[in-house]
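S1.2 Input.
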Amino acid sequence: MCDACSVKNRNWSLANGPGRSKLENVRVFRYFDTETRIRLCWLCSTNLFRMGESVFLAANPALKEQIKRNNATDSFDF
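S1.3 Output.
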């Protein structure tokens, strides 16, 4: 499931159509000061490429908060 679409409760496979219903693993580097991997559908990955990381995450604040929460729990090191 696309991370950006799941936050918006949108059916990503229906929005992309039958020919483009594959997910891409995308790495976001700049915004969180560390490599963060998210799964995006074709439409969301195209929007990320067009807008850039900071504008894409500003347009998707719920996704940004979810990534911050996941990074906070994963960054604990013994």
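S1.4 Remarks. The first strand starts at residue 24 and ends at 28.
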